[in-house]
Amino acid sequence: MDPAREACLAGYSRALRELLSWLENATSPELQRKSNGTRWTNEELLFHMVFGYMIVRSLLPLVRIMSRLPRSWGRRFAAGLNAAAGPFDVVNYWGSRVAAAVYNRRRMSRKLEKTITALAHRLERETPVTLARSMPFPTRWDPFFTADMTLADVYSYATLHFDFHAKQLSLRSPDSSTGSS
Hints:
Blueprint: H1 3-25, H2 28-32, H3 42-66, H4 71-83, H5 85-102, H6 108-125, H7 128-131, E1 134-136, E2 148-150, H8 151-166
Antiparallel strand pairs: 1-2
Helix pairs in contact: 1-6, 1-8, 3-5, 3-6, 3-8
């Protein structure tokens, strides 16, 4: 297996271990405490971190389709999504708040495990040609979206998103019992 694919899969495994640790070690008041630098509670932010992996499952077929269309179509599509960044931000915020009530501390680790397992199986079957497929992305939707992303970039995106938001949790680090992340 190539190093980039191995690194991506290792990131998936580490993210699952960290999520499990946070969920096992955090008290209910800690999960309901505000995170650092977001309007979400820690539990809502943890769900949002899981959601990053869930969204990758939706982005994969989109990249496969858009990469076969004329590039100009993809650029117009990305521009349209960029124009809708304001409403997207509202839905993104409230969606994570509401979904965290369903995928709460008792269910989100199972959801992440199932999602990561599905992503890992798909990634293992990808060829270098399919991983190189690309499409324009809406750069205003997420700091880790670039103007053009390959399928390999999309697979890796979820862990970049997870790690970024992990720094905003006001919980103890998953690898220690003291301090905050």
